[in-house]
Specification:
Elements lengths: L1 H40 L5 E3 L14 E5 L10 E4 L8 E11 L4 E7 L23 E9 L4 H8 L1 H17 L3
Antiparallel strand pairs: 1-2, 2-6, 3-4, 3-6, 4-5
Helix pairs in contact: 1-3, 2-3
């Protein structure tokens, strides 16, 4: 009867290893899809979640925006996502003014949230009056309303994130094929 016990343990080990490999494949697939989106869209962050009401009523908190970065010049009226040097959170606002200096091939961009009273110079770094091309992460080309709330909740309430990750990990590890 010892061989039966060894066989059962062997099968259990094989199932556990298979579940870990499956989890690794799921995570790898997600990373590959993200990197593929980066290549296709030309944006370092092809998807962002709107986390404030500064662009209401056009974009609401919790909306997911899809970004694309092209070589075309940025024009007033476009919605862009930008990052300020030294700050981690990207910002979604409308371009309200563009100055192009053809002699040095530089573009200066001023932005403002549609729901804000003043332009974004108050948010830029001290002494910074304009954004430049390297600050722009992408242009908004699509929207998925409200779906980003899951991300906002997990960011604002980290315990929810740990519960969801734990539950998903437990599900992957306990599911039998």
């Amino acid at each position: 009867m010892d061989w039966v016990s060894d066989t059962v343990k062997s099968i259990q080990l094989r199932q556990t290893l298979t579940q870990f490999v499956t989890l690794g494949m799921v995570l790898s697939s997600a990373l590959i899809m993200w990197k593929g989106l980066m290549c296709v869209t030309g944006s370092e962050s092809p998807v962002v979640v709107v986390i404030s009401g500064s662009m209401e009523p056009g974009f609401r908190r919790g909306d997911i925006l899809f970004l694309h970065m092209s070589k075309d010049p940025i024009r007033a009226g476009e919605i862009v996502v930008f990052n300020i040097d030294g700050k981690d959170i990207p910002i979604v606002h409308r371009v309200i003014e563009v100055h192009e200096r053809h002699d040095i091939e530089e573009t200066y961009i001023l932005t403002k949230g549609d729901n804000n009273d003043v332009d974004d110079r108050v948010m830029y770094n001290r002494g910074q009056r304009w954004l430049q091309q390297h600050h722009i992460m992408g242009r908004a080309v699509g929207i998925l309303p409200y779906v980003g709330w899951a991300t906002i909740i997990m960011t604002e309430k980290p315990i929810v994130k740990y519960i969801v990750i734990g539950a998903l990990g437990l599900l992957v590890l306990t599911i039998k094929e």
